[in-house]
Amino acid sequence: MRIYFAPCGIALGHAGRCIPIARHFKSRGHEVFFSTYGEATEFVRKAGFPVEGVPPLKFYEKEDGTFDFRRTLSAGPRSLLVFSQQVGAELNLIEHFKPDLVISDSRLSTVLAARMRRIIPVLILHQLRIMIPHSRPIKRRIKQVIKGYTERLGLEILGSLWKLSKVIIVPDFPPPFTIAKVNIVPSHQYIKKLKLVGPIIPKRPEELPPSYDLKRMMGFDDRPLIFAAMSGTLAEKKYISDLLLRIFEEFPDSYNVVLSRGYSEGSFPGAKIPANSKRLRVYDWVDDRYLYLKACDLLVTRGGHNTVSEAIYYGKPMLIIPTPAHSEHQGIAESLSKMGLAISLQQHSLSRENLLTAVKEALESSIISIRIEEASRYASQFNAVESIYRIVCDLLSRSCE
């Protein structure tokens, strides 16, 4: 088979979950090809796959990583032009590669291009409902009603387009441990096409040595190990990484800390890595974050869907610092807090004292410890990569052997 992958290029999460699927297909002797844009293009290339860049869609952010709704909205006409260019680029690339099936991760342009080329499109999507971002609580009833109706209208408009996919794969858990509860609200137009397969993770915890052994291999002692793994757009990662670095430098010696700023090569030319100490290690990028995830006692995260999914598989309590006005991160932080899997701390409240209090609460809470163990056992029954492989084979009516 020839499989064409088209992940969204905003941040690295979409490409990050397509890569393990592509590796699985390649290991079974099939050919794969990628199209994406932005930071994700070089990320896919370094993973060893052929990739072509297409015109990049983008949204605007403020200096602190907050979504800039006004600037993004004002760029609407320009975005429509880029979208049409992206569809054209996808048409050319699909014609050149001649795939049997196209897997789009959150990209409508690829779904449309696949249908135009009469190629089967499969969609990976965990944000079925797009939430209107807001940095402050909406208190007025009329504004809440308008927001709800607008989001519902957007759901149905997008639904009329997403339904062009043959199958819509949702990489999340079914209840009771659904991660993105507020986003996984389907339109009636495609509800029969939905398949919840569980989150996609490149490396399962059972593939690695025990946590204690990993700590020793890395040179850590018995102090609790905090792994702060930053993800998101470049603006998000830079602001929060700089802020956390200043705080962690003043943290008590009773903790070991690893801060991964999530800067892929070339993200910030000339950026310097601070001198590491025995208790604080700072990296621009870690090649195998799963070693640190398995070894750590607590994960500090922005609340990206992939990262929190991996933490659940690995049975790690979380401290989530969601990006302001980022509806997905905020929704996930609220969802995991209610499930007893994480502590949530807003960026505007981030200080040494508040972070230290939240860390202690997350590490010492018996409720979080029990709930994360339950969620990890639940997660162990899912193998999303194999499920997606079987779905594709069934669609093409070919042997998976």
SSE blueprint:
Layout: E1 2-7, H1 13-27, E2 31-36, H2 39-46, E3 51-53, H3 69-74, H4 76-97, E4 101-105, H5 108-116, E5 120-124, H6 141-162, E6 167-170, E7 194-196, H7 211-218, E8 225-229, H8 234-248, E9 256-260, E10 280-283, H9 289-295, E11 298-301, H10 305-314, E12 318-320, H11 327-338, E13 342-344, H12 352-364, H13 366-379, H14 384-396
Parallel strand pairs: 1-2, 1-4, 2-3, 4-5, 5-6, 6-7, 8-9, 8-11, 9-10, 11-12, 12-13
Helix pairs in contact: 1-14, 4-5, 7-9
- The CATH superfamily of the largest domain appears as Glycogen Phosphorylase B
Major sheet size, sense and barrel closure: 7 strands, parallel
What general form does the structure show? globular
**Spans with pLDDT under 50 lasting ≥5 residues?**
none
The number of distinct helices, counting runs of at least 4 residues, comes to 14
At the fold tier of CATH, the topology name of the largest domain is Rossmann fold
The tally of structural domains comes to 2
Order of helices and strands: EHEHEHHEHEHEEHEHEEHEHEHEHHH
- Cα-to-Cα separation, first versus last residue: 12 Å
Strand % is 5-15%
DSSP helix fraction: 40-55%
Q: How are strands sequenced across the largest beta sheet? A: 3-2-1-4-5-6-7
**What is the strand tally?**
13
Mean pLDDT: 88
Radius of gyration, taken over Cα atoms and rounded to an integer in Å: 21 Å
Decide which structural class fits the backbone: alpha/beta
Q: Which CATH class of the largest domain? A: Alpha Beta
The name of the CATH architecture of the largest domain is 3-Layer(aba) Sandwich
